[in-house]
């Protein structure tokens, strides 16, 4: 398996961790009754729970582009030290993004996001060159 696919798998596992962090903090905020409800009324999460929810959703969005990049690079046999490094940068940025978002660390949250985004864009560009 290529480094890029290994990192993709680790990024998916990170998404599971993010879901668990969000779920626990959300349930602590709204209670188990609200969590088990049919959610006919929208519940707005605030504070850490809301930030963890937004960080998780942001990772879902970023994971789409990263998945395309990792799969195209791997399937087309274009894995290089540059694309492998970019994959590691993406994962590292996503790991750091969670506490940066949860604790409201501005402007670092945006800087960390940009590192992951541009690492993914670099992989996509490398795939078409």
TrEMBL record:
Alphabetic keyword roster: Membrane, Transmembrane, Transmembrane helix
The keyword Transmembrane belongs to this UniProt entry's keyword annotation: yes
Domain of life according to the entry: Bacteria
InterPro entries per the UniProt record, alphabetical: MAPEG-like_dom_sf, Membr-assoc_MAPEG
Gene Ontology annotations for the cellular component aspect, listed alphabetically: membrane
A Pfam family annotated for this UniProt entry: MAPEG
Keyword hit for Transmembrane: yes
Residues spanning the membrane: 58-75, 110-128
Localization, UniProt: Membrane
Location, primary (coarse class): membrane
Protein name: Uncharacterized conserved protein, MAPEG superfamily
Organism name: Litoreibacter ascidiaceicola
Organism lineage string: Bacteria, Pseudomonadati, Pseudomonadota, Alphaproteobacteria, Rhodobacterales
């Amino acid at each position: 398996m290529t480094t890029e696919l290994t990192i993709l798998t680790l990024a998916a596992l990170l998404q599971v961790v993010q879901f668990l962090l969000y779920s626990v903090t959300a349930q602590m905020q709204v209670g188990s009754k609200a969590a088990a409800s049919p959610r006919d009324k929208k519940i707005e999460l605030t504070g850490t729970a809301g930030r963890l929810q937004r960080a998780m959703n942001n990772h879902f969005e970023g994971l789409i582009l990263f998945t395309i990049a990792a799969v195209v690079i791997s399937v087309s046999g274009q894995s290089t030290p540059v694309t492998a490094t970019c994959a590691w940068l993406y994962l590292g940025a996503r790991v750091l993004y969670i506490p940066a978002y949860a604790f409201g660390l501005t402007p670092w949250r945006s800087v960390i996001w940009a590192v992951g985004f541009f690492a993914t864009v670099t992989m996509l560009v490398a795939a078409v060159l």
